[in-house]
Structure prediction request, 818 residues.
Amino acid sequence: MHKRSLGDLAIHSYFIILCVLFTLPIVAVVSVSLSSEADIVNWGYKLIPRTIDFSAYQYVFADPGQILNSYIVTLFTSIVGPTISVFIMLMFAYVLSRKIFKYRNAIAFIAFFTMLFNGGLIPKYILVTQYLHLGNTLGILLVNGLVTVWYMFILRTFIQQIPEEIMESAMIDGASEFRIFLSLVVPLSKPAIATIGLFILLHYWNDWMTPLIYVTDHKLYTLQYLLQRILLDLQEYTNNMNNLPSDMLDSSKIPGETIRMALAVVSAGPMLFIMPFFQKYFVRGLTVGSVKG
Amino acid sequence: MVQKGKKLRYSLFVFVVAFSMLLAGCGGGNNDSKESASSAPETSKAPAASDAQASPSASGQTDASQLKPVKLIWYYLGTEDGDTEAVFAAANKIIQSKINATVEFHPMSNADFKAKMPLKAASGEKFDLTYTADYIFTYLDNVTKGAFLPLDDLIDQYAPKTKELIADDIWDAVKVNGKKYAVPNTQVQNRQSGFLFKKDIVDKYNLKDQVLAMKKMEDLTPIFEVIKKNEPGMFEIAVPPNYRKYEVTTKEDYVEQPVLKVPVGVDYDLKVINLAEGKYKEEKLNDYKLSREWAEKGFFHPDAALKEDMNAIKKEGKFFVIEDNFKPGVEADSKQKWGYDVYGVPLGQAVLSTGSISAALTAISRTSENPERAMMLIELMNTDKELLNLLTFGIEGVDYKKTGDDSIEVIAEKPYAGKAWAMGNQFLAYTLPGQDPDVWEQTAEKNKTALPSPTIGFSFDPTPVKTEIANLTAITEKYRLILTFGTSADYAKIFDQEIKEYQEAGLQKYMDELQKQLDAWKATK
Prediction:
């Protein structure tokens, strides 16, 4: 029997306090989102709402057709996007890791180079809308952020840890490069795929800048964009209160605290549920690509 | 041997990369670079090809059948509520019959507009008409970058009625270097501060006469004391006393501040004045003294000096007095905006300034392929009552029903909602319940009689004194809430400290630059 010491008590209570400090704000957010606006104005934030009031959620979901549509669009980009993205980056990383590839250093350099310089927003906008004709399509939602060179290098380092001998022996057995990739590399890289995949998933899920800049068709709005727009509009209102013609400000449309909290819950909620499932990969994956051998 | 080959390949590679970077940097010559060097707008870009279209008669009225059918694209502020497809289709029927054009309407929310329009303009995207203002997709910025076409000839030829509709000094406000680059959307163009008092409280304590008779901030103190005593849960007022803003009633006393957060003004002789000395300093000290008194008596919201966003509290009706732009019909507007009845009391005087006029403008993009047709559309939006109301209120019988010749009531649950001031002539719009039937006549009258600011048409170029302005603004912000909401009894000392900091930050330099630009502008008038 392990004797409980005072030291143990101290450590345990420290971590308990830490956990409470982390969860309290989330509880507060959920609680505020379930209160009525008047209560918040009169009594401030409370951990348990005085009266349960769903009006904030009613406001956020006021246009259910639009919200449903956006959920579908976001789900689509968040499932298809990371899948394609991880696949492409993994293939890229695999090629760069193969020692028999003559040009791997040159191409790695080119890839690295793109991390240093950026064309800027305007040239990108011109390229996307006028030359690639991807403006206002589902395509740009998928393509923007498809490959991040940094993640690709991490994957490359990870694959380099897989002993080259395995692949050589597969080649001797007559496997093509692609077969080696699919049957050997992919299964062995599961931790890396999970980690990088999670990062990419977060990126696609949270991305609201892409629709803001490129999308005007409201059937293509993503969920985050819809929610962010409410907040951005509010910012514009409060910044320009004195200048705007007064009937522009329909104060019933100005989100109060409760509505902002409801927005937070709706946008972050799904991710909060997915995270625990990726836990086991995440812990292992944290050191993925950092130490060789 | 292998080493040499490798080295050669690498150096060749680096050379190629460096060369391409050089090309990319030089490239910008034509229209797509945001940092276009041209400060003078490109008048030559106006497509010469469109001259070949129908030649208009002297009055600008053209026969629709003579014109080629074209498509116009229009971006403006608005929402996508309601059945926009039906409304736009109906609008296009009218537009087609009058000028043989189909219009693609693009209402955008504030945030969208702010993010997307600069990109569209900078990338040279083709569109025809756009909303612009002094606070979003800034008019002056875009004129400098050459994004808008000069409109003088087009207005004379294709929009003569609109030209007559708008007074000369309002046209002056949109002139840059003598040319007009946008058409002001006719709406309330003067600004006058007003205090809105909660009607139910005023009536409850029989304060109506006192409230409506108030002229100066001090008049409010006894009223507030009554409220404080009997309504402990309420906050009396959301804004601090400000002589310059609320009590100036004569032209002689009026001073325009080109940069709001810098205490320097311009009077009617176009002379630059330091607002932190002399009689202006006295005024400010009085303001702060009254603020202190009000703060001690608890008339302000306790968080007033910390928090700017009081909207939620205002919506709950916890303030006895709130401030807003006073225009004919403000009571009805306020009822819609805040949800309760108010008495509105106008303060100071109505002023026409470049800012208030540039609050709503329509411009034609230099990438437009049909600027004449675009101008004809502007003429329609400013003169055709049917079209304007269709695009503002929707379809009769579906979104609204008529309650009189010119008054309507909204009947749809999720009605189509357009903003007349974002598209054309607000004065053609029908009136809503709560608005006086002659609210537009009153507003037009007010526009005419408002005091025109001394600096209409003058745009201050801040680049030579950018650092000074930034520093001065920072100082103002540092002390503003402390002084204006009376949080300290030592306000006189703090104010002196602030003045000292202004001097050190380059207040004189800013004033000299401002005077220089004003004198130069005065000479061109």
